[in-house]
Amino acid sequence: MSSTRPRSQFRRPARNTAIAGGAVLAAALTACSGSAAPGDGPGDGKQRTAISVNLSGKQAEAGQPVRVTLADGKLKQVTATDAKGARLDGKISANGRTWTSARKAAPGTRYRVEAKDTDGGSATAGFGTAAPDKVNKLALVPGKDSTVGIGQPLSVVFDHPVKNRAEVEKHLKVSTSDKTEGSWGWMQDWSGKDRVDWRPKEYWKPNTKVTLKADLNGVDSGTAGGWFVRDYATGFTVGENQIVKIDLDQHRLKLLRDGKQIKDVPMSAGTPGGEKASWRGKTVLMAKEGTINMRSETVGLGDSYDKMVDDSMRLTWSGMYAHAAPWNAGYFGSANKSSGCIGMSDADAKGIYDQVRVGDPFEVTGNDAKGTQAINNGYGEWNLSWSEWQTKSALS
Length: 396
Description:
Blueprint: E1 51-53, E2 65-70, E3 75-82, E4 87-88, E5 90-92, E6 98-104, E7 110-117, E8 122-128, E9 138-141, E10 146-148, E11 154-158, H1 165-170, E12 172-176, E13 182-188, E14 194-200, E15 209-214, E16 232-238, E17 242-247, E18 252-257, E19 260-266, E20 278-284, E21 287-295, E22 306-314, E23 321-324, E24 342-344, H2 346-355, E25 361-365, E26 369-372, H3 386-390
Parallel strand pairs: 10-16, 17-25, 20-26, 23-24
Antiparallel strand pairs: 1-2, 2-6, 3-4, 3-7, 5-6, 7-8, 9-11, 11-14, 12-15, 13-14, 15-16, 17-18, 18-19, 20-25, 21-22, 22-23
């Protein structure tokens, strides 16, 4: 719709008469102050509708592209920039009449539009979008410039619900140095928040470089979610090929590097037959937490323990770790008698702790388990087949 305010004038060089009457750029944009944007002028005083812009005023609706349409002639260049100088890239149509921004206008933002046609005319105008009622933010894992193990997925956890999952997923762009095949998958995080992870089809190849560009500024999360008002990015490198294999029934933990066994140590896992049993399945080392205080009430096991534990390696949100457990030495290599964790001697735990990297897969097998780790209990997506994982994409 065109604005009823005085329109921005399309300026022509005095020698140019290609458009009759000196031609004006009648932009449906108005400055955020309610007057013409800086750079506009009265021109020849005529108010024509040579060009229209779909957004205007101080409270324009965010979440839609900026579109400039020329009635006569052809557009040569159009730029739309916000107050910080960030530009909305766009494309001129084949007939030269219309320019459309590739990205959508963000909420709570002032924009300036400059247009030039092929006959040398130019004009500027501005508008502002309404501030968002709610802002959605996110947390990215792994951290920027980190080096991770071959099992580490990209993981995005949102502050507020994401109902427009397909629209959000379109703006999450993963690129890799070796064209790794992968897919996004949506779930509810252990915290209860919406989460989406990008998992390769198979474990990463060592030395792969990965980047994520989340161009979300101006994207609406949907009902109760709010708007994204900034872009996000992270990048990481995949380290060496390491896998930890844990056999619950044989009570052994092995560290393999490039397929060769580096460590083989006795251990004792969770007591089978109840809540103290360990999870089986493919998990990923979430964090190396060192010496921490472990208390049974935090994982729903009453007051059965309260200990300072060394060389703690977190495997799940529900409290399953691999760590030093010298108090359980009588069971290493022979029986599972812990409260759910993978316990080793001080020396063995330190040997493993010093070698492993966040993102290394821990593959837990055996019958002495209480089930398979859920995909949201840490990073359990490797327990789904590739076809099962692909169905969790909002774009599948």
